[in-house]
Each structure stands twice: as structure tokens, then as C-alpha cells.
Protein: Polysaccharide pyruvyl transferase domain-containing protein
Amino acid sequence: MWGGADEGCGEPRPGYARRSDEHHPPEPVHEPSHTRPLKAPPQSPTPINDLRPFSADTRATRHPPPTQTDARRHSPVPRGGRRPPNGARAPSRPAGVCPGACRGTHTHETHPTGEGGGMGERTGTGGQARVLVVGWFSFVDGEATAGDVGAAEAVCAELDTAGITHETAWSPRFRPEGIGLDQARERGHTDLVFVCGPVSGPQVRNLHRNFPHCRRIAVGVSVVDPDDAAARGFHTILPRDVEGQGGQRDLAPGAPTGRDVPVVGVVQAPGQPEYGTRSAHAGVHRRLGRWLAGRDCARVPLDTRLDTRDGLHCADTAQFDALAARTDLVVTTRLHGLVLALRNGVPALAVDPVAGGAKVAAQGLAWDWPVLTVDGPEHGPDPEDLDRLWHWCRNEGRRAARARAAEPVSPLTGELMAALNTPAPQGR
Structure:
């Protein structure tokens, strides 16, 4: 895919072993346990749990059943964020309420949680609980996955339902507009909720050192080693799985139903040295990648290269057609990305990566289809031109693409047959 980690795509740093202790020596952290007492978080009467492995028989004694009034906050699977049955849309929320994990510094209105000493009655800024939602997506050298972020959205939906003020901390490499962990340390949170992924590694251990004033809860996580300092630093763990034991359903499927976004296939031309100094591939792909990252769409890399031994590639043209036909639009700098999209009735946003235009532009003329060109090797497509072509492809272009798919194929096959039926010249 175009772009890279240096351009804020949320990828881990090169060479970084995600969620492991590789290259990260252990650091001392606070470990709440019965054998090493830790002062409880301010104004938190909650006893500190011993996080050694537990079985179904001992779970009831270590985690007593919640009362009816606070059952929601103890539930490892948030009810408020579950997807409605039969594909129905989730009900709309009142104005001012975040529909998922907070993207920026927006916080939610505080509401009382009702009777019974629930989480909303803990004292924080304004006399109410203030929850900081974190995960592997919060670490500068971590990564954001659809599962981790979806789990956070499910938790935030439940906090919304309970009327609990909350914020989400993001890696500045993924969502630079949001608050980061460094900023969050000064924002007066009463509770830290770590969502999804393994509770191990130096990044998780550092949370205990950097947020000692918070009650720290891990939910929907994997506990590989309950004696790891990263795990023992939490006051409460509500795991999805513990090494060697059964598990609970993951949180991610409980995220609120998402919006409809177009599926965009991305077909990138390889380097084409035959064009020499006219090659503008690097500049075109760099600018096109940055532009595409700003579009609200689901990007799917498509490779026209076939391979019968690689399980990640299509093995024949029918398989590639099946992929292309399921997209709403194809963005391409490759000739066959353009024509195979049109073959399947899918509009193509095509850019010729050769200065002045070459074979992609020529196919545009042959198919009567718009293709953007660039003036020089260091130039890229103009964002305004890309925006206009995107709008056309998402509207009139859909009908035009279906019409192209119904048109006759290339006349070159007929010309080939005529050539084969012509006697070969003598002496050659």
C-alpha cells in the first residue's frame, strides 16, 4: 500500500517487536497484590485483587457477583455496544455524545449513575469518575488494529450508556489530533481502563508507573503470565483468556455498528525502467497515497500478479475478477488495474505514472475513460483533480463503468485471426 509509517499510517516502527519485551529491559513498576501492599488509588475502596491464575471454581471468591445496580460496570462484554440483531442499525445517540472511542480531546457529559455506589460516584474532576481508555493503540511504538480499536469503541459505548465521563488516549502516530498518554497524565482521571491485547511488555508496565493515582482495570485482555509485573500492576483484570484456561468472548464484536463506506481496490504499478527519465512512479505514488489516506473508504490492496504457490495471491483471472467485482471503486496506476475494473463494471480512478502519459493514458482513450496524467517525474496528481474524479466515479462513473463492461472487447483478436488466415510472405 502507498504511504508508510513515516507518514502517520499507524504502523509500528521498523524493527519494533510489537507486544514483546525484545530490546526493552524490565522497569520497576507498582504491583498491587496481597503480598506487596500498595496504597489504594485515591478515594477507591475497592480491594486489590490477587491476579494469580484462577479457575472457574475460584472465580466467584476472587470476583464476587456484582449487585444489580452495578452489574453493568462489571460485565466483561458491554451490553450497550452490542450490534443490533439482523443487521439493524444501532439507535442514534443524543447530540454531544461520542458514537465510539473518542478521537480527540472531547469528553462526555457527566450524569449520575443512579443508586448504589457505582463507578459514577467516585470523586474526580467535578466530583465524578473520569475514565481514561487505553490500549496498544495508545503507545507511540505500538500499533492500532481494527480489533483493539473496536474493543475500545465497545467499552466507550458502555461508558456512554452509564453516563460516565471518559477519554481515549491515542498514539500520535495514529491519531495526532487526539490526546496522548503524556497529556493524559495531567487530566485528573480517576480510573484507567486498558482494553484488549496481551497484558505484557514494558509499555503496559509503564502505565502502572505513570498512572499510580488511578485505579487500573484491564478488560478483554489475554493473560499469558499472571505473575508478569505488567499483569500484576492492575487492580482488577477481566480477561478474555488466561493461559491454559478457557475464555470469554472478545469485546470487538460489541462495537456499535459502523457507517457505510466504499470498498476501494488499490492497484499499484511496479517500477517500469523502460520509460527512463519519464518515470514519475515515486512521486505519483507518494502523493496519491497521502490523498487516499484522507478519503473515508476501506482500502484493499489488489495485485494483478498471479501466483499458484502463494496463498496471498490470486492464481487465475477468475479469482482476480471475483476480487475486483466486489469493490465499489478501483484506484490504480496500472494499465490492467484500469481495464480489469471496467471489465467488471467497476469505475476506476486511474493515474498514469509516466510523465506526459503512456500506456495507461492510451487505454483511457481506447475506452473513452478519464485518466489523470502528470507533467514531470517530480510531479504528482493535483488533489483537486483527484477529488473531482473521485466524485465522478462515485456517481456518474458507476453507470459509465457498467456500460463499458457491456461493450465489445478489443478488436485485436479479430485482427489476429485475419493475420493468421493470410498466407505468410515467401522467404521469411
Q: What stands out?
A: Confidence is low (pLDDT under 50) at residues 4-31, 33-125. The chain has two domains: 24-80+97-254, 263-413. Residues 24-80+97-254 form one domain. The longest strand covers residues 215-223.
